[in-house]
Specification:
Length: 314
């Protein structure tokens, strides 16, 4: 049997990934399937760019963009540069829960039968020492850290590029949509495209620890960008039913719309947004409130967008 090669691809912007790359390099001699590590520097500062360049060796290379071109575009550049049969995308702000060798070996049994394999996301059991990062940690533990068995119930809905292996030939069919410049739901769109193309997704328990937790305020700002992107995508996709099947928020939104409740939630959001954000940026964080905040924000985008045919700014 011919051993298929793996390219490890790490997009990064102003983040120190030296320890991560050294850990992954240690697996190269022990797992011959891992043939290269490619770092995608997405317009980082000169200080960080020098750090990435210092990591270059025969099997570690850096591709750079002088300006920040966005999460989708840098991933496409990495895919084009890679020489492996499988592309292993991981985020820069991850930590290995065990050895790099064990992590890479865990993928190998699935490569002959699956074209897209998601490894999963892990969070520390204990809360971060910084109380200003509690919201991101709580949300990650609640929504993102799920077993493979749970994710495989709705495989395309659980798709994430945080820790995923994709057969390179898939990129001849589907690429990341580079129209999405700002943060949010690039993964959602690709999961939908994979579903429309009839490409199955397998979820396995081979998680990486998410280390780079944003502050409460930064996470709320990213949430806003993500909701805005989701509203844009919902208008653009041709099969809204299939797209909704991959996004829980859209399924809930369609039910609320059926019962005529979306305008009510939009009105609540406009009136109480500031109060909700103060509560969510505190030590007393409610995940139920955060879910309501996101849903009512999406209803607000949809109501204004449907009336004016433009996305609101708030």
């Amino acid at each position: 049997m011919i051993k298929m090669k793996i390219s490890l691809l790490i997009p990064v912007f102003d983040y120190d990934l030296i320890a991560l790359v050294y850990s992954m390099k240690s697996a190269m001699g022990k797992v011959p399937e891992l043939c290269e590590i490619v770092i995608g520097d997405d317009g980082s500062s000169a200080e960080y760019h020098k750090k990435y360049i210092s990591l270059e060796t025969e099997n570690v290379k850096v591709i750079s963009s002088k300006k920040n071109i966005g999460r989708a575009a840098i991933r496409n550049k990495l895919a084009l540069e890679a020489k492996g049969d499988f592309l292993l995308f991981i985020d820069a702000d991850v930590m290995l829960p065990g050895t790099a060798e064990a992590y890479i070996l865990n993928w190998l049994p699935y490569m002959n039968n699956s074209r897209v394999i998601c490894g999963g996301t892990l969070y520390h059991d204990s809360a971060p020492g910084d109380p200003d990062k509690i919201l991101r940690w709580k949300y990650g533990k609640w929504r993102e850290q799920k077993s493979a068995a749970e994710r495989n119930k709705h495989p395309h809905a659980g798709f994430s590029t945080f820790n995923v292996m994709i057969e390179k030939s898939v990129f001849e069919i589907i690429r990341f949509n580079e129209e999405l410049k700002q943060y949010g739901h690039e993964d959602t769109l690709l999961g939908y495209q994979l579903k429309k193309a009839g490409i199955d997704i397998l979820h396995i328990d081979n998680g990486l620890m998410h280390e780079g937790l944003e502050t409460n305020r930064d996470f709320l700002n990213k949430t806003k960008l993500g909701i805005e992107n989701l509203s844009k995508l919902y208008d653009k996709v041709t099969d809204k039913r299939a797209f909704s099947d991959t996004v829980l928020m859209l399924r809930i939104y369609n039910k609320l719309k059926f019962f005529g409740m979306t305008r009510i939630l939009a009105a609540i959001f406009i009136k109480f947004r500031d109060r909700m954000e103060i509560r969510l940026d505190s030590s007393d964080i409610s995940l139920f409130l955060f879910a309501f905040y996101k849903m009512s924000m999406f209803c607000t985008y949809r109501e204004i967008h449907n009336r004016k045919k433009t996305l609101p700014e708030f």
